[in-house]
Amino acid sequence: MKKDKFRLILIAILTFTLLVGIALYGFIAISEKEVKLGSLISILIPLLLVIFMTFFIRRRYRDIKQGMPLEDEMSRKVMTQAAAKSFYVSLYWLLCISFFEGFFADKLFGLEQLDASQTVGGGIAGMAVAFFIFWIYYNRKGKLI
Amino acid sequence: MKNRIKEFRAKYNLTQEDLARKVGVRRETIVFLEKDKYNPSLNLAYKVAKALKATIDELFCFEG
User: Fold this and answer.
1) Contacts 24+ apart (CB under 8 A), A42-46
2) Domain total for chain A?
3) What mean pLDDT value characterizes chain A?
4) Share of chain A above pLDDT 70, in %
5) Chain A residues near residue B43 by CB distance under 8 angstroms
6) Closest by Cβ to A68, choosing from B26, B39, B43
7) How many CA atoms lie within 13 A of B53 on its CB side?
8) Does one domain contain both A61 and A8?
9) N or C: which end of chain A has fewer CB within 10 A?
10) Which of A47, A70, A93 is the last residue of a domain?
């Protein structure tokens, strides 16, 4: 139980750090007057993650208070399956980024080409979004392999 | 896999939270088990059966 509490506190600290990071990034982007669609997406995706994590932490905190574990056999299986599926989807997503690189660079950042950090960031963001969609899906639907 | 967890839980007047605490899993797992949305491992099936003073055979019915 103490281990679960410690892990939940660690998740809360990470979420708070992410929130501070978003605020700093947003502040820098606004102060440099470089608010493009790409910057907005870079803020929106982590912000959605923070909102989701806030609900997650609140729910898990209530569970721990009621004497239930932070994770169990089913939640671990949900995580594993969501991770496997998101990895599979991210391969297609990375392929999509490499095919339409020019389009993304122009529409999101107003550039001719994406640089390495933008490409990798886009890939990671896509994987993270896919993971959370699958996580929610399997948590609601069940029917795990 | 069909199961009689709800029936046995009612027999011993246990809530889903009570059973979850006894087995050492989260309440959602018990909800999913009762709704046949999750097939438990043999280990979990044994723990649930033990908590409900039944055998795995009495509790779970495999439908090919």
Assistant:
1) A42/A121, A42/A125, A45/A125, A45/A128, A45/A129, A46/A18, A46/A21, A46/A22
2) 2
3) 85
4) 97
5) 73
6) B26
7) 7
8) yes
9) C
10) A70
* Interface predicted TM-score (ipTM): 0.84
State how far residue A133 is from chain B, nearest Cα, in angstroms.
18
Say how far apart CA B13 and CA A91 lie, in whole Å.
50
Residues A83 and A21 in one domain: no
Are A10 and A63 members of one domain?
yes
pTM for the model stands at 0.77
Domain that holds residue A122: 73-145
Q: Are residues A10 and A60 in the same domain?
A: yes
Q: Which residue has the tokens 């009621």?
A: A66
Query: Per CB distance under 8 Å, which residues of A are interface residues toward B?
Result: 63, 66-69, 71-75, 139, 141-144
Query: What pLDDT does residue A81 have?
Result: 93
Sign of CA dihedral B9, B12, B15, B21: negative
| Residues A59 and A91 placed together within one structural domain of the fold | no
Q: Between B35, B37, B44, which is nearest A73 by CB?
A: B44
The 3-state DSSP class for residue B36 equals coil
Structural domains of chain B, with CATH = 2-55 (1.10.260.40)
Q: What Cα–Cα distance (Å) separates residue A100 from each residue in A103, A108, B8? A: 5, 12, 57
Mutation test of the interface with chain A: which of B3, B16, B29, choosing the one with the most A Cβ atoms within 10 A? B29
